[in-house]
Amino acid sequence: EDQVTQSPEALRLQEGESSSLNCSYTVSGLRGLFWYRQDPGKGPEFLFTLYSAGEEKEKERLKATLTKKESFLHITAPKPEDSATYLCAVQGYSGGSNYKLTFGKGTLLTVNP
Amino acid sequence: KAGVTQTPRYLIKTRGQQVTLSCSPISGHRSVSWYQQTPGQGLQFLFEYFSETQRNKGNFPGRFSGRQFSNSRSEMNVSTLELGDSALYLCASSSLGQVQGHGYTFGSGTRLTVV
User: Fold this and answer.
1) Chain B CB within 8 Å of residue A78 CB
2) Does the beta carbon of B50 lie under 8 angstroms from any beta carbon of chain A?
């Protein structure tokens, strides 16, 4: 069974203070690892998909990286508008992993001005 | 381009009743998935449909069911509601559900409260 563990559960930063969020996973053949951002009362908003170890993707102040066991979401010089819950999810190749995402419980990021 | 539309946004039901939730995917998207989100369990997969066929189902009781229509719109139904069914129900659509991993676009969800 696919599993995703995110840490920390909550993170409070000062504006401009860079940090990283962690996503550890186990999956039977990785089809893709996804990062989403979720604001209160809204659905998750897609950020990145990573497909293989060593891959990196960037978007504004966010950079996602992937190894065979974990992914990191690096936030550089965050701003208050980056405050949200960040969700990590995996999709596998085999059997029950197909066509579904297994999510971690998320990291609640708060950026203070 | 319109996003994923879920209706209704909020719903209050009584234990024992049944409920139907609706999801209209992004135009051209043929894969629709449903997830349940609660504070304790996070997002959990319910089922996924592609071209009116259910391809995968999560570990939920048979009270949870769904279907997809020929225009890709999808509905999910929960019968004999229990207090524990209170949650945010999210629908996601994808144009590449059949191909190697791709981002799924989520709707804003239906907030179901069972009293």
Assistant:
1) no
2) yes
Q: Which amino acid is at B60?
A: F
Contact yes or no for B90/B107 (Cβ under 8 A): yes
Q: Which residues of A touch B31 (CB under 8 A)?
A: 99
Residue B60 contacts A, CB cutoff 8 Å: no
Q: How far is A15 from chain B (nearest CA, A)?
A: 27
Contact B43, B87 (CB under 8 A): no
| Cα distance between the two ends of chain B | 37
Residues 6+ apart with CB under 8 A from A8: A21, A22, A107
Nearest CA in chain B to A95: B56
Residue-wise pLDDT tens for chain A (113 aa)? 899 999 999 999 999 999 999 999 999 888 899 999 999 989 999 999 999 999 999 999 999 999 999 999 999 999 999 999 999 999 887 766 678 899 999 999 999 99
Peptide bond into A8 cis (omega under 30): yes
Using alpha carbons only, give the angle A12, A109, A5 rounded to the nearest 5 degrees. 110
Show the tokens assigned to B113. 């409260």
Task: Indicate yes or no: CB of B55 within 8 angstroms of CB of A46.
Answer: no
